[in-house]
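A.,

Following up on our hallway conversation. Structure tokens first:
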């Protein structure tokens, strides 16, 4: 298989799909791997390391797309990528097409096959989404602690509080990888955390984390009460492959009060909060209803070295399987196809 790794083109996206050591394993398996010059630089992996791994370094994206059959990338095809894609390409990346109907149509028009990292469901788990969800969960709280500071327009709250002061109040929607990590990060800072989820096992795990974590079923009235005056709301609701449902209204966001913060990790799938709109790292924050919003669609792109290493560890086994001629016989990979041959394939997108 001829495998190509282009440079990411989304604003301030520094991740690379595979680090040199992972590429070396593909080469050892008999595959030809090419990478665009500079693709790994922002993650700390220069072209010489890829060349030492047996990878061919090509000057530009056009050359990579021209040579490759299988395109491995981090984010969905974006901008100039669409000029280079062909019907015989297979793209393997984070797609999040439920929130991108225009891109879905374009990929169908091209006729290629697109397999989504976020729709690889293996043994009931989402192994390619999990590492980035962990990172996004941590970052959502780290960034929010900064945004809550008065010079950033925040209400001047230290989430962990101090003796003689109340703890900051954090509400988290969803206790999966992203929400669970956000809740634990906020709790470890000392905040008073309320986590909402419908899954009993997840609620139990959150409850056991510590006395400053309350885990609740998301009854509408109880959620509304928790949001009144909350300092931080983290949205982390996921329906694999589908658009996220809006669980928090504009009025509920307004009830948090001036200077509070919303971080919607579910923004990749359209967001689970009514006031959410997609942002990028070159313009990451906006204000709605007096509340600062952090809704960047590629949050882990801010820590590209950590994120690229974590992604490579999870991605390589699936890349090796996808590079086999009979990969469509693998139910895990076949079930992760989003579009193919001009048609939408994944059930979550059809619904």
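Then the amino acids I'd put at each of the 351 positions:
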């Amino acid at each position: 298989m001829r495998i190509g790794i282009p440079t990411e083109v989304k604003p301030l996206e520094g991740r690379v799909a595979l680090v040199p050591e992972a590429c070396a394993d593909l080469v050892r398996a008999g595959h030809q791997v090419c990478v665009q010059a500079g693709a790994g630089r922002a993650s700390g992996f220069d072209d010489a390391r890829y060349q030492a791994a047996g990878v061919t370094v090509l000057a530009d994206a056009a050359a990579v797309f021209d040579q490759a059959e299988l395109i491995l990338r981090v984010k969905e095809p974006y901008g100039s990528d669409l000029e280079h894609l062909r019907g015989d390409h297979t793209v393997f990346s984070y797609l999040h097409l439920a929130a991108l109907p225009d891109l879905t149509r374009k990929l169908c028009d091209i006729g290629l096959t697109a397999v989504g990292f976020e729709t690889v469901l293996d043994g009931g788990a989402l192994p390619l989404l999990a590492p980035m969800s962990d990172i996004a969960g941590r970052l959502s709280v780290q960034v929010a602690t900064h945004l809550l500071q008065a010079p950033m327009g925040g209400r001047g709250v230290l989430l962990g509080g101090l003796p003689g002061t109340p703890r900051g109040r954090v509400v988290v929607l969803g206790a999966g990888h992203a929400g669970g990590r956000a809740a634990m990060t906020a709790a470890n800072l000392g905040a008073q955390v309320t986590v909402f989820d419908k899954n009993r096992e997840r609620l139990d795990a959150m409850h056991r984390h510590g006395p400053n974590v309350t885990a609740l079923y998301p009854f509408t009235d109880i959620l509304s009460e928790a949001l009144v005056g909350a300092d931080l709301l983290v949205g982390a609701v996921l329906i694999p492959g589908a658009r996220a449902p809006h669980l928090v209204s504009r009025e509920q966001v307004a009830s948090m009060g001036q200077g509070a913060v919303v971080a919607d990790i579910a923004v990749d799938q359209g967001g689970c909060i009514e006031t959410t709109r997609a942002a990028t790292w070159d313009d990451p924050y906006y204000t709605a209803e007096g509340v600062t919003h952090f809704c960047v669609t590629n949050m882990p792109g801010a820590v590209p070295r950590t994120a690229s290493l974590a992604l490579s560890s999870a991605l390589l086994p699936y890349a090796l399987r996808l590079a086999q001629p009979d990969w469509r016989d693998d139910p895990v990979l076949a079930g992760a196809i989003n579009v193919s041959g001009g048609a939408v394939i994944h059930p979550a997108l059809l619904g």
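The mean pLDDT is 96. Curious whether your intuition agrees with the design.

B.
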